Amino acid sequence: MPRIRNKDRASAYRERLRNVGLRHTLPRERILSYLDRKNTHPTPEELYQGLRKKGYAIGLSTVYLNLQVLRDAGLIYEFKDPKGVTRYDGYSKPHHHLACRSCGRVEDILASELPEFLEPVIPEAEAKSNWDLDSARVTFLGYCPRCKRSR
After folding, report:
1. pLDDT tens, 94-122?
2. Do residues 77 and 140 share a domain?
3. Does 138 map to a domain?
4. Quick one: pLDDT at residue 1?
5. What is the 3-state secondary structure (H, E, C) of the chain?
6. Is residue 1 a part of any domain in this protein?
7. pLDDT averaged over the chain?
């Protein structure tokens, strides 16, 4: 599989921003790039620290502002982990979450790794709710391997 060059990746983020009517900025590109990895669900502070460790000069308020803008545009997903902590997810492949009730750990599970059980549910939910639905995201709650062993 050919490796995607940084220039190509940057162009892809620019296009994603443009497709939802957002202006490209370096902080937005860097946030999208950071979040577009499997099993990455940072808090805003963790994201800020991660970007700083990569050598990016970015302010915490800039991180918060851009997370809100990217969330509102539908480019990233905001959710609460089992401990009630707000986390962000920008992994672009279709996936769901596994969340540990004990430690709060959140992992991705690719939709392609599961039976296609959600697709038939969407029309049923639309019919019962009178909503216009376009997707579904599931969080499976339980105990991660480490917490399961210590129970």
Report:
1. 889 999 999 999 999 998 888 877 777 88
2. no
3. yes
4. 39
5. CCCCCHHHHHHHHHHHHHHCCCCCCHHHHHHHHHHCCCCCCCCHHHHHHHHHHCCCCCCHHHHHHHHHHHHHCCCCEEEECCCCCEEEECCCCCEEEEEECCCCCEEEEEHHHCCCCCCCHHHHHHHHHCCCCCCCCCEEEECCHHHHHCC
6. no
7. 91
